[in-house]
Amino acid sequence: MLKPCSARSSAKREAILDAAKASFVDNGYAATSMDMVAAKAGVSKATIYAHFQSKDELFAAIIRRRCDSLACAIDELTVSESLDARATLTAVAHKLLTMLLDPDTLGIYRMVVAESPRHPDLAKVYFDAGPSRGKERMAEVLNALSRRGLLKVPDVWQALDQLIGMLRGEHFTRALLGLPTSDHTNLNRTVEGAVEMMLRAYAP
Fold it and tell me: What is the pLDDT of residue 28?
């Protein structure tokens, strides 16, 4: 039995995104062509353009897909009234740092940094679809904790800069540079330290 058209279309879209992600990470943004993506995905170039109007749009879709797992996790946390501030922040911070340390995420980040001087539009696409979107979702969590009286955060955007900055410490930097891990830090220790600082700074 043939799959419904919508299911076939969705499968092709995912195949295109998978192929494009691999091509961008392996070859860089500028060196990746739609022909290359089409060959890797096993589809025609016309099929790609039926889903994505440009290479920028294709790249943005990859970033949005990377952010979806974090957004879903945050959605689940915002409706849970059973978690206190420490448990909520720990879950969100752990999810975010795990995503930041993912090899695909690191590969995309390295590529954007390398290409952004020549392709500033690419940097904007990345920032709008990735960091900015993720930060908006995390702001919902801090606002929810504040409404429940569990935190007192006068400037949510600044508080998120502080949290994200602490998470992107030595452990993240070593992973970004391809260096071995250190005895002084690991994922759990980084998350625990960042959460503790947030709780001390924004206790009600």
Answer: 87
CA gap 63, 65 in Å, rounded: 5
**Is 16 in the same domain as 114?**
no
Which amino acid is located at 128 in the chain?
A: D
Average pLDDT across the chain, whole number: 88
CA-to-CA separations, 57 to 17, 113, 122, 198, in angstroms, rounded:
11, 18, 10, 36
Closest CA to 166 of 193, 143, 145: 193
Q: 73-113 pLDDT, tens per residue?
A: 677 766 677 889 999 999 999 989 998 999 988 988 998 89
91/132 same-domain check: yes
Residues 68 and 155 in one domain: yes
Query: Do 107 and 188 sit in the same domain of this protein?
Result: yes
* CATH assignment at residue 129: 1.10.357.10
Of the given ranges (9-23, 148-162, 190-204), which has the lowest mean pLDDT?
9-23
- Torsion angle, alpha carbons of 178, 188, 136, 109, to 10: 0
Report how far Cα 161 is from the mean position of its chain's Cα atoms.
15
Domain range for 126 is: 55-201
Place of tokens 């353009």: 49
Domain check: are 45 and 118 in the same one?
Answer: no
